[in-house]
Write a structure and sequence with these properties.
- The protein is an alpha/beta fold and about 260 residues long.
- It contains five helices and 28 strands.
- An eleven-stranded mixed beta sheet has the order 1-4-7-10-13-16-19-22-25-27-28. It has a nine-stranded parallel beta sheet with strand order 2-5-8-11-14-17-20-23-26, with no helix packed on it. An eight-stranded parallel beta sheet has the order 3-6-9-12-15-18-21-24, with no helix packed on it.
- Strand 27 and strand 28 form a beta hairpin.
- Helix 3 packs antiparallel against helix 4.
């Protein structure tokens, strides 16, 4: 049995699951689906196209499935798809896709802090932390277990790998490979995200091999191509080594904080 305040607006076509709490002054639009166990606090606006899983918690003033802030959007129906067990804090804005039947996607178990903005067609993985006032532009991808500290900016079409830490205020203007810390402006490599990897039960030997990969990539004053050759020859094969190689090669050797000249 759901608990819906008489002071909330819930469109009669909206589909509301079981044990959903909707507080006063919330707005639930048409063409919305909300799964079981969600809690929606006052002044939350969930607009047309939202597809929301179970046990999500939306705090005061956030807007989900807002229309895209992009001149390419021509009014087509599109979606925001949110998984389970996410916490979305005050005044977060999540825009839906600019493409017909496209979607902005948020996975499971994420913590999205106050006043953050996730633009159209971006994909957020699982167990991601997005700090206060982080701004993520359109068509980005943030992979699992990554942390974006407060006031970080992510430019359009950038991809951030898994287990990455972006320091506060950092401007991400390129693809960030997995397991690293990035800091400063302009963005630069700051080391391996060893503390969080240990929290994630990675073995010390694995972390050492990850560090060896990045010494070749970022600290050997060589091209990304030559760094890949060295990593394949010098670092024992593992899932983590292979994930680093896969990420860099599938992005055409273009990763953040390596200049164009270094890539040649």
């Amino acid at each position: 049995m759901s608990e819906i305040s008489p002071l909330a607006f819930v469109h009669p076509e909206a589909k509301i699951g079981n044990n959903v709490t909707i507080h006063a002054f919330a707005y639930i639009d048409r063409n919305v689906e909300i799964g079981d166990g969600c809690i929606i606090w006052p002044h939350v606006s969930i607009r047309s196209g939202a597809r929301i899983g179970k046990n999500n918690h939306f705090y005061d003033g956030c807007i989900v499935s807002a229309t895209p802030q992009d001149f390419r959007w021509k009014g087509d129906e599109s979606m925001v798809v949110i998984g389970d067990n996410n916490t979305i804090r005050e005044h977060v804005i999540i825009n839906r896709s600019i493409y017909k039947d496209g979607a902005t996607r948020i996975g499971n178990d994420n913590f999205i802090m106050a006043q953050s903005h996730i633009a159209h067609d971006t994909t957020i993985g699982n167990s991601v932390v997005i700090g206060n006032s982080v701004k993520i532009a359109g068509s980005c991808k943030i992979d699992d277990y990554s942390i974006l500290s407060s006031c970080a900016l992510v430019h359009e079409k950038c991809e951030i790998g898994k287990w990455v830490l972006i320091k506060g205020g950092c401007r991400v203007n390129g693809n960030v490979p997995p397991y690293v810390i990035m800091a400063h402006n302009p963005i630069s490599y700051f080391g391996v995200n060893a503390f969080m990897l240990r929290m994630g039960k990675f073995k010390d030997e694995t972390i050492d091999d990850i560090a060896k990969c990045y010494r070749h990539i970022y600290q050997s004053n060589t091209s990304a191509y030559n760094a890949m050759v060295r990593v394949k020859a010098d670092v024992p094969e593992s899932d983590e080594r292979n994930e680093i190689i896969r990420f860099i090669e599938t992005h055409n050797l273009k990763i953040a904080s390596l200049s164009y000249e270094t890539m040649l």
